[in-house]
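Friendly challenge for the regulars: who can give me the structure tokens for this chain first? No prize, just bragging rights.
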Amino acid sequence: MKTENRPTRPWARHHLTGVLATISALAVLLGSGALAAPAQATTDDIAQYYSARPDSVKTEKVELDHNVDVADTFKEADKQGIHILSAELLVGNGGGLYQYDPNLSASKNAESLQSQIKNLTGTSAVVTALEVLYPPKKGSQKQQSSPSATAQGSAVKGEDQVRRAFAGLDETDPTDDDISRIRDDVENSPGTAESHMLKPQANGVPAETNAHPNNVSFRTDDNVGGKRKVTYDIQWMDKSDIKNAPDGWGLEVELYQYNYKLSDVIQRPACPKGTDEKFWADAGLHGTTITYLFNNKKNSSAKAKLEPYLDNNHWSDPCYQGGIGVGFGKPKTLPRWDETILDTKIHQRLTVAMSVPKGNAAWSHIGAASSFVAYNCQAKGKADTDCMGQVGIWPEDKMGGISDMLLLNKNRKWKTPTYFSWSANAVKRPAGLPR
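First reply, four minutes later:
Bragging rights claimed.
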């Protein structure tokens, strides 16, 4: 069977050409004064963080003392001047994430989050942790309030202060609802039976290593509750097991959108303003909600400290590429399932459903990959998109393959909306859904 070429590093976050392009772009920005640090974080500073990730702006993940209501959390953050980047959630018997939209008020963010969770799962969410942005050091004369921080005075700084700010809020337990409906889209899609439940095939194509998932499905849907919907379903079967991964490595699964009208040479942060919106789904991911479930649905989120994060750091990505990805800083905490179906033992299964704001394009070409990335988040306490994949040497000789695995080659020119899957047990890919 002829297989697709797998580049050595299909979409590495940090590579030489990206660094060179980024240095050039930063030189322009610094020369123009665009990265001058104001005294307090403002709407512009938050936007600047997403586009340029300046060192003057710090982020940290803070585990709350107890689970808190979403609306109460966002309201208190607004009152205290705490700038939220994302919220980690408990959703029924699963988990979730929400990427805060700095252009919306606290109440509108809470409404959007719960509305999307309801559309995806049929239930509601509570907050367990927050990723916050600390404003740059004082020194500039510029001072103004952002829609998400209307408090008088300077914003709260420091993990302990942030945690104490929410300690007085009532504890709110998550519902005990089963959210396995998020699997319906992939389980009921054409080709699923051929790719998910096949017996092992002698001429099947193995995964890159025995740590990579060897059964992966993606589905994209145009309009679900006014948003784009992306569903990932990944499984480790037979010889593949996440427990085979080396210590200190996280896992990212990414759907890449392509707009060939944009430059494939110029790289972020030097892309024109509004680039992220020129795809099927808005690659900026502000206001994006995800929910996830693993294995056989039993107390999914509480049993594993997966350290999920939304992969919205597109630093050094070319303008024509807009990623929609999710990462897990500690995937080896995923418990074993070890259920046997049709002579195939499934060690672990992880399903992720994403609700993403629409971009300006009716469709986009797509590609996909799964990648192991080094865990460099010890100082932050939990994984996030900025600290993952900074420094690390993948033990290729020991693992028998590279860290990245191409799942859908962009040269196939598949378009959204569609369903596709890759399985080590399949001898033929299912056809994409017709447009």
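The two ends are 28 Å apart (CA to CA). Confidence is low (pLDDT under 50) at residues 1-41, 137-156, 430-435. Your move, everyone else.
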